[in-house]
Amino acid sequence: MKPEGVPFSERVMFTRAGLLVGILCAGALLTAWTVTQAGHDMRASQLQQARFAAQAVSVDSVQALTGTEADMERPVFLRLK
Predict the structure, then answer these.
(1) How many structural domains comprise the chain?
(2) CA 55, CA 59: separation in Å to the nearest integer?
(3) What DSSP designation does 64 have?
């Protein structure tokens, strides 16, 4: 007596193909999550560095600058640079 339906060799082939597709999808999702996490970590690091730099700069020093070429020789500008 033969079993009805799809032959065994075809079931094995479909099972293997399904597993391969599942593994590839899981890998793609893991890669996307990893890239997202790396981007978040880099942005957090840059924000922390910007906060450290902002704490090191005096508001009065920046306000004392005029934005002209004359500032290039001022000690305040040279310290900020």
Answers:
(1) 1
(2) 9
(3) T
- CA-based diameter of the chain, in Å? 99
Q: What is the sign of the dihedral through the CA atoms of 62, 65, 68 and 72?
A: negative
Residue 3's SS3 state is coil
Q: Which domain holds residue 33?
A: 11-80
Structural domain includes residue 5: no
- One digit per residue, the tens of pLDDT, for the chain of length 81 reads 455 677 888 889 999 999 999 999 999 999 999 999 999 999 999 999 999 988 988 888 888 888 899 889 998 888 887
In a domain, 18, yes or no: yes
CA angle 44, 47, 48 (to 5 degrees): 85
Q: How far, in Å, CA of 60 to CA of 63, rounded?
A: 5
CA atoms within 13 A on the CB side of 47: 6
59 is a domain residue: yes
